[in-house]
Amino acid sequence: MNTPALDDRDGVIWYDGRFVPWRDARLHVLSHGLHYGGGVFEGERVYEGQIFKLTEHTERLHASARELGFEIPYSVDELDRATRELVDRQKVRDGYVRPVAWRGSEQISVAGTLASVHVAIATWEWPHVFSADAASRGIRLGTSRWRRPAPDTAPVRAKAASLYNICTLARDEADRHGYDDALLLDYRGYVAEATGANLFLVSEGTLHTPTPDCFLSGITRRTVLDLAGDLGIKVVERHIRPEELGTFDECFLTGTAYEVQPVRSIDAHEYRIGTTVRSLSEAYTRLVHAGGASG
Description:
- This protein has 295 residues and is an alpha+beta fold.
- It folds into two domains: 12-125, 2-Layer Sandwich (D-amino Acid Aminotransferase, Chain A, domain 1), CATH 3.30.470.10; 134-288, D-amino Acid Aminotransferase, subunit A, domain 2 (D-amino Acid Aminotransferase, Chain A, domain 2, Alpha-Beta Barrel).
- The chain is built from seven helices and 16 strands.
- The mean pLDDT is 95.
């Protein structure tokens, strides 16, 4: 059975302060955000009808917009209320929420100060990124030739649409070579992240994760760090060299869509799905399904 295209579905999308029919949620082809990358977005998960850490995501959407030099014309509280109502209207129980803000079509030039700012929120059922057995088998990563940029060359603190062009190139490259995702190094050659998730590695029960000084420290990443503290797992945040990848026992990714996703290999390096990955995955699952999971 074919899944319908994202622009051809029933329901509604919240668009600039009102709910519009799904198929009518359009933007003009001369929108500044389309031509010059002036857009930011978030990804949020719905568990049993509740949005996990909604307010944190909405606050980050605002912060990302400010990094790109524009202000979102709706408050955090307004967007939170709209998101909850949208999830209720769409009757999403186990799914995904995508808020996005972009510059409009008032001007086509590199400068974007005269362009209006638009905001839309969509939600749909989406239980898993990878196949159903990925949690038990793990996924395979291949190191990409594409790298995360230096902080003085790109707005690395923003969840900016323009930065994900690198991720698309890396992910397409990984797909062509038979991997499930790509590992990106940073501009210095240190291990950074996957295309849509943060990276964790385990050695003798200690959790190692790259220092997020040129990529986002994800909300799920920070949640897992808190859970590791609760479980008494030692955490080391540091620069990790690619040649160290073979010295670790376990590996996993974290992200809103990925959740806690075990990795069974990076290039020729193989990892087991051990006690640390399993305990953090189970703790994360308990947390997101708890009564206080919504933001």
